[in-house]
Specification:
The complex is a heterodimer. By secondary structure, chain A is an alpha+beta fold. Chain A is built from five helices and four strands. In chain A, helix 1 runs parallel beside helix 2 (46-52) and helix 3 (59-83) packs antiparallel against helix 4. Classes of the chains: A alpha+beta, B mainly alpha. The interface between A and B is large, with 56 and 56 residues.
Chain lengths: 176, 454
């Protein structure tokens, strides 16, 4: 069965939190609070995470892999180039000198870490993204939005909950 | 002294910052005009040097670097405070950073871009620049990876690209605000593209927080490594006066110092030009001034350490260079450096000057004059008085072409910076909202606690 979107706007976090709590406790057929609800806020708000519960973040794994790959790539690029000098006279000095190579390896470690962290951020945050089904520019001012996706039968129940908690505005996706 | 109001409406924060993208004060256009003139003059000098040859720069052997590399170090130093301070203060949860970090990070980016120009300019033959890049070629010849100059190129590239990414990532939520409020046109398209479809969802904020923190953690050691590597360009050579162990920390302190002074200058300029009096407040300025004063004293101490190391090391030639700096042709500039770098900042020790805008503006310019002189006094005197007397050249004076390009670089930096501040929000809207929100919460909690106590 196809699902429709509903967006409710609130003026503060407390009201939004109360709605989320009620949606959690209520059993609504055709609506899964875990997968079908998104909170949109104008600022990074720790309370949102508290009332949504722990959700994993994987960006740091990208960081680790990026930094290691960057460092390894840096070291082997430099060492490979220096080994290229094998046929040239080095006057008894080491072909691959570690102390100076450490500096560039260090820089590449950071470069790889930063670049892949950004890549990880884009992947994990789902960016670049298309505009979602319902959006209000008031979220970029001071409103908190609760976007839900539910089957036709659940829409009226959700609307009633939003209205009960004094939603400033409710947007509804047109039926298909 | 007024700080950011806790009861300020979030819509007003958006409105005030968005206004800066539309209608700055007239002074903005005046500064832009002069920046354009200065840049045009510098560009003219470069074209003349390119067409005629490096002789017009009056560089010679031993004076091979002249003002070009001195100014290169100055701009690298200037870049330091923006991103580094932003990252450190972010990790320390210092909320006063929030209204000012954006322009400070932009300052880092444009300073690095300006610094990069001097590397190319001093080569003379611009088309040879690609020789420095590490890429496989027909003859199997690579750049010398053991040279600090190559480390420098790599460190600066890493710092520039990481700083740009740090600036960009931190700006995404604000770009979405601008996207939502801009009328249709090229700017709307630009912001829509750059905002990447940001909508402030819990998933986006969650990943954003970790990413921003992670990059901040990377940037702190990176920024320190960049300027200590620039110091290695000098300290790892055998030139008198350069082969000093304290050079890397001395360079890092100098970089922080000039960066902080530049933040004061730009703070005052933006505050007036974009009418940001409500966000770039005097208590914030006071904090930056105190930080600058502390760094100035560290720089002064490290200067003393450097002179003492040379003096007591019994390296006769290095000692000669130091004496020559104090008493020879360079003496007015060397003493000027000491005056501007160590004496002028004492003004900051007086409470009444810590928020006196005209005094702070003049002082911050003098501090950066001192820091520019410092870089010149590192480069020129050593080249003029090396280990071999037949290479001595105490009378060399940079030509107008060199001065013109130094002058032009300030125009170039100012031009880029002003265009950035007109196109992108130079105050972080979402972070100022966070700051206001947390202060309000804190206030409410304190009031509740007080009521409970009664």
């Amino acid at each position: 069965m196809s699902k429709r979107h509903l967006l409710a706007l609130y003026s503060n976090f407390d009201e939004a939190e109360a709605v989320v709590k009620e949606l959690r406790t209520a059993t609504i057929n055709g609506f899964d609070v875990k997968d079908d609800m998104v909170i949109k806020s104008p600022i990074e708000h720790p309370e949102v995470e508290e009332f949504l519960g722990d959700k994993p973040v994987y960006v740091q794994w990208f960081t680790l892999i990026g930094a290691l790959l960057g460092g390894l790539f840096g070291f082997f690029l430099i060492s490979g180039a220096q080994a290229n000098f094998y046929m040239q006279l080095k006057g008894g000095k080491p072909i691959v000198p570690f102390p100076p190579n450490f500096v560039l390896t260090y820089e590449m470690f950071i470069l790889g870490g930063v670049f892949i962290t950004i890549l990880g951020f884009l992947i994990c945050a789902g960016l670049p993204a298309k505009r979602s089904a319902l959006y209000s520019s008031k979220v970029s001012v001071d409103n908190i939005a609760i976007l839900v996706k539910a089957e036709e039968g659940a829409i009226s129940v959700l609307k009633a909950i939003f209205t009960k908690h004094k939603a400033l505005e409710i947007q509804e996706e047109a039926g298909k | 002294m007024k700080d950011i109001r806790e009861d300020i409406a979030w819509a007003k924060i958006n409105q005030d910052v968005l206004k800066s993208l539309e209608a700055p004060r007239k002074l903005y256009w005046v500064i832009l005009f002069f920046a354009l003139l200065a840049f045009g003059f510098g560009l003219g000098c470069e074209v003349y040097q390119y067409q005629t040859g490096m002789g017009v720069a009056n560089l010679n052997n031993p004076q091979v670097w002249g003002l070009y590399i001195a100014t290169f170090i100055f701009w690298i130093g200037m870049s330091h405070s923006g991103t580094l301070l932003s990252a450190i203060l972010h990790l320390m949860h210092a909320d006063w950073r929030k209204p000012i970090y954006r322009f400070a990070e932009a300052m880092t980016t444009f300073s690095l871009m300006t610094a990069g120009l001097f590397v190319m300019v001093h080569i003379g033959r611009l088309w040879m620049f690609y020789y420095a890049l590490p890429y496989p070629n027909d003859r199997g010849i690579w750049p010398n990876f053991q040279s600090p100059l190559l480390w420098d190129a790599m460190a600066i590239f890493t710092y520039l690209s990481s700083s740009v990414l740090f600036l960009f990532v931190g700006m995404i939520p604000d770009l979405a605000i601008v996207r939502d409020n801009m009328h249709a046109g090229w700017r709307k398209k630009l912001y829509t593209l750059l905002a990447l479809g940001w909508e402030g969802t819990d998933r986006q904020w969650r990943n954003f927080r970790v990413t921003y923190l992670t990059i901040a953690c990377f940037l702190i050691p990176l920024a320190v490594s960049v300027h200590s590597i620039v110091a290695s360009d000098f300290a790892m050579s055998q030139q008198p006066g350069w082969h000093v162990t304290s050079f890397p920390p001395y360079f890092v302190a100098g970089a922080l110092y000039s960066g902080c002074a530049a933040i004061i200058t730009l703070f005052i300029m933006l505050r007036y030009v974009f009418k940001f009096e409500e966000y770039m407040t005097l208590p914030i300025l006071k904090k930056i001034v105190r930080l600058t004063f502390a760094i100035a004293m560290i720089w002064t101490y490290l200067n003393a350490v450097e002179f003492a190391s040379v003096w007591y090391s019994h390296d006769a030639v290095s000692k000669d260079v130091l004496i020559q700096k104090m008493t020879g042709n360079y003496a007015p500039f060397w003493w000027g450096m000491i005056f501007c770098g160590s004496v002028v900042p004492l003004v900051f020790a007086f409470k009444r000057f810590q928020t006196n805008i005209p005094v702070l503006f003049a002082t911050s310019l003098l501090l950066n004059l001192g820091m520019w002189l410092e870089r010149w006094m590192i480069v020129a005197p050593t080249f003029s008085h090396g280990y071999y007397p037949w290479t001595w050249d105490h009378d060399q004076w940079p030509s107008m072409v060199q001065w013109g390009m130094v002058f032009g670089s300030f125009g170039w930096f100012t031009l880029l910076f002003l265009i950035f501040c007109k196109v992108f929000p130079s105050v972080s809207m979402y972070e100022v909202k966070e700051m206001v929100y947390h202060r309000t919460l804190h206030l409410k909690k304190s009031e509740a606690a007080e009521e409970g106590a009664h």
